[in-house]
Amino acid sequence: ARGSDPRPAPALLRALTRAVAEDGAYGLRRGAGFAAVPPTLLPVAVELLLDPDDPDAFPELATEARAALAALLDPASGGLDGTGWRMGAVPAEEELSAALDSVASRANISGLAITRLDWEAEEPVPASIGDHVLVTLAAADVRVGRATEPAP
Fold first, then answer.
1. Letter string b/e over residues 49-84, b meaning 16 or more CB atoms within 10 A of that residue's CB
2. How far is CA 149 from the centre of its chain?
3. What backbone torsions phi and psi does residue 51 show, to the nearest 5 degrees?
4. Torsion sign, CA atoms 116, 118, 122, 126
5. Where are the alpha helices (DSSP H) in the chain?
6. Residue 130: how many CB atoms within 10 A of its CB?
7. pLDDT digits (tens, 9 = 90+) for 87-123
8. Alpha carbon distance 114, 92 (integer Å)
9. Model-level pTM?
10. Percent helix, strand and coil across the chain, each rounded to 5?
11. What is the mean pLDDT of residues 73-88?
12. Neighbours of 89 (CB within 10 A)
């Protein structure tokens, strides 16, 4: 992985393919028996509305919500258990809500929605995706609005 791109470098993929071919069973040692490939990335956006207990705390809570949700979907350290977001997993509303627990203690959260960003028009994320797909979320793609106004 390089920077914000969670996919392994091509050299690492080639090395993994060679190592498996050298040490693997006969079927894997054949020329086309195994090839390491990077995951297919599925970038998403999350929308939510906040109604903070203290209206002046909105900017801080919005920043905290963005960071918490981006951290949840981090492929290396995300997930509720901190072991990395899982390949082939679509975040459930319960997981998104759990990541926002510290914000929820100081604000009502509503309007939680997740959409895919890989198509021209934003669409809901399907309920299931292939095991080769990795959902990704940048903090900038967490759209937080006040409960009295739509999310930007």
1. bbebeeeeebeebbebbbebbbbbbbbeebbeeeee
2. 26
3. -125, 85
4. negative
5. 10-23, 26-29, 58-72, 93-99, 101-104
6. 11
7. 999 999 999 999 999 999 999 999 999 999 988 888 8
8. 9
9. 0.82
10. 35, 25, 45
11. 93
12. 16
